[in-house]
Amino acid sequence: MSEALVEIDDLKVHFPIKSGLLFDRTVGYVYAVDGVSLKVKRGETYGLVGESGCGKSTLGRGLLRLVEPTSGGITFDGTDVRSLKGEEMRLFRRRIQMVFQDPLSSLDPRQSVESLLVEGLKAHGLHKDKADVQKRLKSTLDSVGLPASALNKYPHEFSGGQRQRIGIARALVLGPELIVADEPVSALDVSIQAQVVNLLGDLQESLGLTYLVIAHDLAVVRHISDTIGVMYLGSLVEEADGDQLYERPLHPYTRALMSAVPVPDPQVEDRRERILLAGDLPSPANPPTGCRFHTRCPWAQPTRCADERPQLRVFDDSGQRVACHYAEEILSGELKMHEVRAEIVRPDSDTAPDVGAELIQTRTDLPAP
Ligand SMILES: Nc1ncnc2c1ncn2[C@@H]1O[C@H](COP(=O)(O)OP(=O)(O)OP(=O)(O)O)[C@@H](O)[C@H]1O
After folding, report:
1. What was the ipTM of the complex prediction?
2. How far is the C-alpha of 76 from the C-alpha of 252, rounded, in Å?
3. pTM confidence score
């Protein structure tokens, strides 16, 4: 299957910053999403990663029009989402559901599981046939591994993992085609995370679901994503097949994110590339000129990186896309990291596993170029 269910074209979501006594003056914008184009194929999982504040959630919310995009196109199953109104919009919303990070805050503690699940059905007028509703609720609970007796209980009576199963059931009960899962496991214990990730995988297989999974942690999306997009300060900086991205990360930011994912093998863990990013994420209200990553990039070159914004371009036949002027030179090793900003420790070539590059420890106490 390769048909795109969702197509996002040059999407921008800019939030106005208001000032003045009545907050009636716009003094600037938060460029939360600033020109993202991507496709989510039917039946597949698109993993969107990036550190907190880079615009991942806003992109997900913009797709559902929970926030109104500033510009750009969104197509869902061939329909122009941005032109939908009234009843058409309501029907569209049924086809896409969200799963949120923290089930405790997204589930009203005063409502029983039954009432939480029926709520969605009511919003779409699907609650009238009582026998049918009961059948639907029970089979939905069964599909997420919860017993029918859960219907009469309240969220606090469940463990964190079970609560997330309720959150997933609430999304599933309307029979959606796409699920936007925003940090679906980051509030859970590590031991429970794998169970919920596996559940999402099983549901995808049995129900033919399409997922957009948003996470700050590459480890979470690694095993479930067919395609991974890496976001930095409102833009996609790299996109590739899940495996391809791990074998050959091209963008310096992806390499930095990758180096933060722990590897279970201590030999590999000791020897792999480490890039600790200098400084914090710049403000999306005042993004750096040129390449937005240049202020933190260990390979940034004067003055092109500061002057010219790199476009997301197809790198080679693999279809991998990267927004970096120097991706080829970094990959070939022709361009070295700034020695003043990095301590480079080369691993013993006889024993070093093939993990992409020399072992690099970047010092974070040095100023950005
Ligand atoms: N409604 C809003 N009004 C103004 N600014 C907003 C609004 N929503 C988000 N932002 C800002 O947009 C930027 C991107 O936020 P967003 O939540 O999309 O990032 P994120 O990558 O999902 O981070 P997190 O994982 O912390 O949610 C942030 O600077 C945030 O403060």
Report:
1. 0.96
2. 32
3. 0.88
